[in-house]
What does this fold into?
Amino acid sequence: MKRSAAPKAEHPAKAPSSPVSPIHRVEGAAVAASAATLFILGGFSWWWLPVLFLVFDLSFIGYAVSNRAGAYGYNLVHNYAAPAILIAVYSLLHVIGIPLWPLAFIAGYWFFHVGADRAMGYGPRPPR
It folds into this structure.
């Protein structure tokens, strides 16, 4: 009698991903290009974009705990809502005479990072 081989176990720390459609990749590239342009026109040096590119990927640390925690942390950081809120806060403060340039810097860089990730095919992570 021949025994069947047991299925190979998947590595528990592997980060699951969802496929990113071509239209969302194009959208991501457009957001990244627009963010980079506005970032530079806003007076920030272009070299900050590649130097700090992996900062937001520190959200992967959650995968050391579990796939669910990793997906939650990644999805919380890799979306357009948070940098949009920063830009809104920056704009409101600027109108009343308090231009906090670090908010614009972080928001511009954040938009660039998320757009570039989407353009490269990295999308939201499903919690498993």
About this structure: The chain has one domain: 22-119. The helical segments are 22-41, 48-51, 67-77, 81-95, 101-119. The chain has a mean pLDDT of 88. Residues 22-119 form one domain.
